[in-house]
TrEMBL record:
UniProt source species: Eumeta variegata
Gene that this sequence comes from: a10
Endpoints of the signal sequence: 1-18
Residue ranges with Basic and acidic residues bias: 143-155
Stored InterPro entries: A10/PebIII (IPR005055), OS_D_A10/PebIII_sf (IPR036682)
UniProt keywords, alphabetically: Signal
Domain of life assignment: Eukaryota
Protein name as it appears in the record: Odorant-binding protein A10
Region (Disordered): 120-155
């Protein structure tokens, strides 16, 4: 067996034995987040599911399973701990949007979720720092631009 054949076999074997769960399912990527966030009953259902206080829809069960499966030593879910590296771009944007909505509009629910999924408060703290930074950028006056045509209109 020559080296190239050995490399081909190794490549095939590593693909077969690699972790097929390296990314989250995209099965729920087309869920209408606007509909959920605008509907108190739906959003409360998801929150209660994540808190273990109510029945879970199939979508809620999947979300809860992902959060529970990807806890790390300090009980932080993957999406919060490492920037959601197993998420698609759409999932990253969606998860940030939902978490930001709950932090801003349902702080009591966020506090309960945070106790379970982010007890050190790092996600909220990072989000609030980011918000503060964006607010500062928006509030800063633009540098006064000197008119380079100064004197041209003077006679």
């Amino acid at each position: 067996m020559n080296l190239s054949q050995l490399l081909i076999i190794f490549t095939i074997a590593s693909g077969v034995f690699s972790d097929s769960k390296s990314t989250y399912t995209t099965k729920y990527d087309d869920v209408d987040l606007d509909e959920i966030l605008a509907n108190e009953r739906l959003l409360t259902g998801y929150v209660n599911c994540l808190l273990g206080k109510g029945r879970c829809t199939p979508d809620g069960k999947e979300l809860k399973a992902q959060l529970n499966c990807y806890h790390v030593t300090e009980n932080l879910p993957d999406a919060i701990e490492d920037g959601c590296i197993k998420c698609s771009d759409k999932q990253k944007l969606g998860s940030e949007r939902v978490m930001h909505y709950i932090i801003d509009h349902r702080p009591d629910d966020w506090a309960k979720l945070e106790e379970i999924y982010n007890p050190d408060g790092s996600y909220r703290n990072n989000y609030l720092k980011e918000e503060l930074s964006q607010d500062k950028e928006e509030d800063e006056p633009e540098n006064d631009k000197k008119d380079t045509n100064e004197g041209e209109n003077c006679k």
